Amino acid sequence: MAATASLLRQNSAATDPPSPPSNITCVKKLSESPNLNSIPSNYAYFTNPTETIASDSDDLIPTIDLSLLTSDNPDQRSKAIQDLDKAACQEWGFFMVVNHGIPETLMKAMLEVTNEFFNLPEEEKPEFQPKKVLDPIRDLLLEYCERSREVVRKLLKGISESLGLEESEMDKALDLGSSFQLFVANFYPRCPNPDVALGMPPHSDHTLLTLLIENEVGGLQIQHKGRWVNVNALPNSILVNSGDQLEIFSNGKYKSVLHRAVVNNKKTRISIAMANGPSLDTVVSPASQLVQTKGCVASYVPMKYKDYLLSQQSNQLNGKSMLEQVQIHD
Asked: Region Disordered: start and end of each range (predicted)?
């Protein structure tokens, strides 16, 4: 099977505090402190004062019906590929997938077991946490990982065609038969000062595509045309964002999307992200067919995916700082 890893973390602020109170060992424990009316200053994250306030645009965010993308009807499939190309990948870098084939019961079970993990006593959690980002995941999550990978490979076949390539070209070039998955479970507890804290700072993902599900508490924001947009997921949908490897492979036609997680002062939010990349040993570069046309040159330096992943994971999340390192500027 493909290499897979897991990462479970508890978030409430954009950066880890340099000096938390001596009796506080994690954000969850801090959130459960009696009479917590404000967060310590070292958890505060102050945004740019000129930044546009986030708005709701759930009616504009593209929706891809996976059953149409895999349909035997050529007209339906052609329309789905066009939607995947223009609206989903070019205009937004983000979309919702419906009729994806992953049972709702499985998605809910994943969220429930994640919630159970985060509610374990602190001394019991290390038993379940991987020591390194590349450690293999446990059998409990295997079905969800496999189902997610099926969805991703179907989407990438459509994306390959939307780039003007053969349906199987991306699969072969990136060795998707041995694709790497990284399972990330996030816990965002109630925050008394949501206006000065972030659950996750703005960043792009190291992936080709990242699949996200969440409990019935919103908090994901994506950057679109210079403003932050609140994501309101459709029932039983999967949220998908394009990552750095897709931007590199498409030679910049499809941009990885900046996104962040915000917190609230009422409810705990849990999200599960399944990051899907090429095989770890694949050297990712712009598709040769996309840089062989007259006047077109590669805009990114080739880099082994494993090296890219480990470099990004070993540094603080900071916009597209990792992607900028492999960009070729005029």
From this structure: 1-22
CB atoms within 10 A of CB 236: 14
| SS3 at position 86 | helix
Q: Are 212 and 240 in contact (CB under 8 A)?
A: yes
Give all strands (DSSP E) within the chain, no chain letters.
Answer: 4-10, 55-56, 63-65, 94-98, 181-188, 198-203, 209-214, 220-224, 227-230, 238-242, 259-262, 269-276, 283-284, 303-304
The number of beta carbons lying within 10 Å of the beta carbon of residue 129 is 12
- Is 7:133 a contact under the CB 8 Å cutoff? yes
Residues 274 and 272: their CA atoms lie apart, in Å, by 7
Tokens of residue 152, six digits: 């991703």
User: What's the CA gap between 2 and 28, in Å, rounded?
Assistant: 32
pTM comes to 0.86
Tell me the C-alpha distance between 105 and 97, whole Å: 17
Query: Facing residues of 72 across strands?
Result: none
CA proximity to 241, closest of 64, 46, 11, 65? 64
Q: How many CB atoms lie within 10 A of CB 35?
A: 5
* Per-residue pLDDT tens digits for 114-128: 998 888 887 777 776
Which domains are assigned to the chain? 4-13+51-325 (2.60.120.330)
Q: What is the DSSP letter of 42?
A: G
Residues 6+ apart with CB under 8 A from 97: 63, 64, 65, 66, 151, 155, 211, 237, 238, 239, 240
Question: Closest Cα to residue 304, out of 325, 285, 329?
Answer: 285
Say how many residues make up the chain: 330
pLDDT digits (tens, 9 = 90+) for 242-269: 999 999 999 999 999 999 999 998 999 9
What end-to-end distance do the CA atoms of the chain give, in Å? Answer: 41
Burial (0-12, 13-18, 19+ Cβ within 10 Å), 115:
middle
